[in-house]
Amino acid sequence: MNSKLLIFGSKSFNESLNEVKEYLNYSLIFYDFFDKSQLIDPSISAIIVDSYILDKINLNKINNKPILLLERSDKVKKFKYDENINFPISFNDLRNKITKIVSAFKFNINSSLKIKDYILDKNEKKLIKDKIFISITEREVRLIELLFDKKKALTKSYILKKIWNYSENADTHTIETHIYRLRKKIYTKFNDDKFILNFDKGYIIWKKEI
Questions:
Q1: Please, what is the end-to-end C-alpha distance for the chain in angstroms?
Q2: Residue pLDDT, tens place only, 109-147
Q3: How far is the C-alpha of 152 from the C-alpha of 204, rounded, in Å?
Q4: How many other CB atoms are there within 10 angstroms of residue 203's CB atom?
Q5: d(CA 189, CA 82)
Q6: How far is it, in rounded angstroms, from Cα 175 to Cα 152?
């Protein structure tokens, strides 16, 4: 997939970037206005915004792409962004800064999962809600991911195959014990007894609150 940078900039800023686009290893798409539909393209890796046109763009509405901001005034403090660009800057430094922020953003996306009102931090092995968290095991991380990924309740045998790979030391009681302990952690910390639900056909984590 061809990676792209979405550019919101003044005429002079856009012309400057256009002159050096071959050094950036990205396709550049230029706009002077903001619409959320512009972010749908999955090949867009990052957004660069010239602070001269911040009155046309609300950066706080952008939450699914990393933002690099060309700083030129104090008003940028009112907006969230991930990295700043201060000119003069070399082509190599600019390319490295873009690559770094894109890599960091992808890592953070891959290492966390939003589940209802919670964030599952797979890297830190934490389940977080409203800045409160519980520590969980690697196997509990995998269990939560599996139960949340599917749209239907999962049987004990299916979970056993996916998480334990039919280990000699594992059986359906192993699954029941792990889920019981995980539920207890969540209820004790968050007073939530509906995070993992069980039915006749097995266990599930609903996509939305019930």
A1: 38
A2: 778 888 988 999 998 999 999 989 999 999 999 999 999
A3: 7
A4: 22
A5: 32
A6: 17
CB neighbourhood size of 157 (10 A): 13
Domain locations along the chain? 4-110, 112-204
Q: Which positions ≥6 away from 156 have C-beta within 8 Å? A: 172, 175, 176, 202, 203
Pick the closest to residue 179 from 133, 128, 153, 144 (CA basis). 144
As a CATH number, domain 112-204 is: 1.10.10.10
* Cβ-contact 163, 146 below 8 angstroms: yes
Nearest residue to 143 via CA among 210, 204, 207, 190: 204
Residues 8, 30: Cα–Cα separation, whole Å: 6
Nearest to 143 by CA among 116, 117, 167, 174: 174
Antiparallel, parallel or unpaired: β 132-135 and 126-129: antiparallel
Q: Give the span between the Cα atoms of 205 and 146, in whole angstroms.
A: 9
pLDDT digits (tens, 9 = 90+) for 7-25: 988 888 888 888 888 888 8
Which CATH number describes the domain made up of 4-110?
3.40.50.2300
Coil, strand or helix: which one is 117? coil
